[in-house]
Structure formats: C-alpha cells, structure tokens
Design a protein that fits this description.
The complex is a heterodimer of chains A (231) and B (276). With 231 residues, chain A is mainly α. In chain A, 54% of the residues lie in helices and 5% in strands. Chain B is built from 14 helices and five strands. The termini of chain B are far apart. The chains are: A mainly alpha (231), B mainly alpha (276). Chains A and B meet through helix 1, strand 1, strand 3, helix 2 and helix 6 of A and strand 1, strand 2, helix 5, strand 5 and helix 13 of B.
Chain lengths: 231, 276
C-alpha cells in the first residue's frame, strides 16, 4: 500500500498543529516566564534565581533566595552510599558514555526524591495547615541529626526567613523540606525537581571520578547476594 | 552492624554452569526455552507451559499498536533523535510505571477484575447481582481502569485478542467471563467499551498470573514497540525531532516583562539622583 492508502484514527482526529510552550519562549532571544534571559536575568540575577523562577513562575525575594541557597547546599552532598551516585559509579565502571552516566544518576536521584517526598506527604499537609504542628514521626530523636538541624538553623539565621517547623526538632529531611516549602516550593513536583537538581553535581562527579573497567576495585559483594534456589 | 546481605531467587554465576530461577542455564534452558518462556520465567520466577506462552505471544502480537505518533513511542523517538538507541528505549520504558496509558493500565485493570471477581463469585454471576456490584463500584469511581477506547468505538486489539483466545479454547475461562459480565454493565452505564488492557489483564489472571505480576509482564510484552522506535529513531537521528522549528511552537506563557532589578537599573540611569 502507498502512504496515501493508510488511514486510521489519528488521520481522522483533529489535533493542534503546534507544540505549546509555557515557560521558555522559542527563538534566539529566550525569555523565562516573561523575563529576557540574555539582557535582563544574566545582568541582574544568579543561577539560583533562575531555578526558583523556572519552578515557581516568579522571581524570589532576597530573603527567599538566600534561604533556598542554604537548603540547596545542605541537600547537595550525597555520598556514593546512596543509590544515585552508586549507580553513576557502576555506569562509569561499565564504560558507559558520559550521557548515560549522567542519565543514570538522574534516574537514581529522581527515584530517591520521589520516595523522600512521598514519605513526607503528612509533613507537607501539616505545613499547609494553619496549625503547622510537626507530626511526631518527623521529629528527630537522634542527637547527630538534631545537631545538623541546628547547623541549618544557624545558616538560615542571616537570611531572616521564618521557618516555624525548625523550632519543633524536625529530622534533617523534614527540616530541609520545610525550608523549601517556606521558599514557595510546595508541590511534590517542585520539591522533587529541586532535590534532584541540587544533588546532581555530586552524584555525577562521583561517577566521573571512577575509571572505566576498574572492576577489581569495586566491592562486588557489597551487599552479598545469597542465591536461594526454589524449583 | 546491619546485615549486609540480600537474598535473590534470580541468578548465580557458577564455574561451568549458571543458575537462573532454579534452572541450569545450559542444561535446562538453552535449547529448550523460547524467548517468551524465558521472559515469563524472568518476570514470574516460574516456567510457563508452551500453551501458556502461546497466550503471551498472542497478547504481545495483539498489543502491537506501534504508530510513532502514540505518545510513549513518540517520546522514545524524541529521545532517540540524538542517535542513542538505549537512551530512547530506556526513556520510553521509564515512563511506564504508574502512567495512565500503556502497560501499567493492565496492572490496574487486573486489580479491578480481581476485586469485582471476588465480589461476584458468591453471587453466581446472576445479572441482577452483577448489575448491583458493578454499579456500586461505578458510584464510587469516576474513572474505570481497563475501559475507554480513544478515537474509536471499540478496541480492535481486544477483538483480535479475544479471537485468539477463542481459538485456543480460553475465551470462557473465569476472568474472561468476569470481564464480559462487568463490561456489559459498564458499557451500558458509561457508554465506554473495555480495552486491550482489560482483556490482557483477564487473560493473565486466567493464566495464574497475579495482580502484582501483571504490570511487569505487560511491560515486557510491549517492549518490542519501544525497541522498534528506539532503533529506527536512533538510525534516523532526525534534525526535526532534535529541535522543532520555532514556527511549530506556540508560546502561551507569561507576557514579556522587565525584572525589578532591571527596572531599578533603568531608573538609576535616567535619574541618578532619585536612585541614590
């Protein structure tokens, strides 16, 4: 059959002819949510501002940007113990391309962020409520973690952003999500995106630091898989 | 210290022979198992008979609606447009978990079928009882997984698959009968027909596949379409999919505006004293 003879539901249907852009204008003078990148944002703002603008649709206040940068820095260092960077190392060991190594790290981090945000759905509900009482399960009883949250509070002091949940002994994760929430990142997709973006540099760097085919130096029995046969 | 071990039923690398789900790879699998049965073994952890694998073959063939304009497959083409076959295939498969179309609908349809089947078993599938059970479900649920045939009145894949099942004498098995029973009520109440996801779910359940196995098995049976587009898409690596021409984009976002700092800078330039 010739191409003209093929007909089906997609030939019969009515569809738009153009793809809709809602954030970035196409063309040689890109604007993000209305702001010209090359003549405006690049002169007056930072990469952090662009992240917040992209995800919230508005430029952040100085206070919010400063607090967001603190949260970003606290979120960023993710060691090879975690699945994202671990997978990035494995990709590199296998001799994967740079693009595959980056993509694998992104998938691992996105899965981690999805789980983290899902585990904190009750926290997000409490932050949205007027009482804003921190649910007990998000309160830390571990001294080490309380110290980390205290370091976060001290780093946030200079920003002047009010994050009431920090007064209620939150876990480190709950504290960081509360700060992001106070920065206007309130929807799960916004939170997941920021967590992944913040962690990407460390995760991919861990992979890039590995050498292709360096199999002999990889702990192949960590953890040890025990084959249990059932026939 | 935490227990640093994990159990696995999947595989072990031996010296001269390897193990795979309780089978010796060279002795028991090589030369004996088809690709389909190996796939079933991988996902279910158990071997299926040749007759059972034939049902999976029928399902895979009938599921083949692989027009590159279909959204998950289009996504595969878009990612493969830079020449990376694996990236395209991985991206297409990556979006399947929990999606509203594709293999995950088989899992959700299987859940629904089992739920209604269990409610109906005790009723003897009397029409009045089926009507009451299904309408009770519809009262609580706006969206019914496994129903809906976009852009056409009925799902031609389901029609073809049911004909395959008929030829194999599997059209009247318990979950296919449940499907028929609930479809009659849903179609009457909602003017929507069952789709291939529902038929696949019913056939899987009649094979003894459980609800949790249905989604991964459906993904495996549909992966050929993703590979088809990943391979062709990567070979073509078309410029038009790497970047659509600007004239094909319709911007509907915020209108052009100046940032507060740009406005302050402009004000300071035009009136330096005021700015100070």
């Amino acid at each position: 059959m010739s191409a003209a003879q093929f007909s089906g539901p997609l030939e019969a249907g009515q569809f738009p002819e153009k793809l809709t852009a809602r954030v970035v204008t196409p063309g040689s003078e890109p604007r993000v949510h209305g702001y010209d990148v090359e003549t405006d944002l690049a002169h007056h703002y930072t990469a952090t501002d662009l992240v917040l603008l992209s995800l919230t649709g508005e430029l952040a206040t100085d206070r919010v940007r400063a607090a967001f940068e603190v949260a970003w820095l606290f979120l960023a260092p993710i060691s090879v113990a975690h699945a994202g960077p671990h997978a990035s190392v494995l990709a590199r060991l296998c001799g994967a391309t740079v693009s595959s190594t980056v993509a694998v790290a992104a998938i691992g981090l996105a899965e981690q962020a999805r789980t983290l945000v899902a585990e904190h759905s009750e926290l997000l509900r409490s932050l949205r409520s007027s009482t804003a009482k921190l649910p007990e399960r998000y309160q830390s009883t571990v001294a080490e973690e309380r110290e980390a949250v205290e370091r976060l509070r001290r780093a946030l002091d200079r920003t002047g952003l009010d994050v009431p949940a920090l007064q209620q002994s939150p876990t480190r994760d709950a504290a960081l999500l509360s700060v992001l929430f106070a920065c206007g990142l309130r929807r799960p997709e916004q939170l997941q995106a920021v967590i992944v973006l913040a962690r990407m540099p460390c995760a991919v760097a861990e992979g890039f630091a590995e050498r292709a085919t360096n199999f002999g130096n990889y702990p192949i029995n960590l953890p040890h898989f025990v084959y249990e046969e059932s026939r | 210290m935490k227990d640093l071990s994990l159990s696995t039923a999947s595989a072990h690398w031996g010296w001269e022979e390897h193990s795979y789900f309780g089978q010796r790879v060279f002795e028991e699998l090589a030369g004996h198992e088809s690709f389909t049965s190996l796939t079933a073994l991988s996902l279910l952890g158990r071997r299926l008979s040749a007759d059972q694998c034939a049902v999976l073959d029928d399902a895979a063939a009938c599921l083949t609606l692989a027009d590159p304009r279909v959204w998950p497959l289009k996504l595969t083409r878009v990612i493969a447009a830079h020449g990376g076959m694996s990236a395209g295939a991985a991206a297409g498969l990556l979006i399947q978990d929990g999606a509203r179309i594709g293999p995950s609908t088989v899992a959700r349809a299987a859940e629904l079928l089992v739920q209604l089947h269990l409610e109906l078993v005790g009723t003897g599938f009397e029409p009045e009882a089926v009507d009451a059970v299904v309408r009770g479900y519809l009262d609580k649920h706006h969206f019914v997984w496994g129903f809906g045939t976009p852009f056409r009145k009925r799902d031609e894949r389901l029609v073809a698959f049911c004909a395959c099942l008929e030829r194999r004498g599997r059209r009247r098995l318990p979950f296919m009968r449940t499907l028929d029973a609930i479809a009659a009520v849903v179609t009457r109440a909602r003017q929507t027909e069952p789709n291939m996801g529902m038929a696949t779910a019913a056939a899987f359940l009649d094979l003894g596949v459980n609800v949790h196995e249905a989604g991964p098995l459906a993904t495996a049976l549909m992966q050929h379409m993703f590979f088809a587009h990943a391979v062709e898409g990567a070979q073509q690596a078309p410029e038009i999919l790497r970047r659509l021409p600007d004239c094909c984009i319709d911007y509907t976002g915020r209108e052009a505006r100046e940032s507060p700092r740009a406005l302050s800078a402009s004000a300071a330039k035009t009136n330096p004293q005021a700015a100070e």
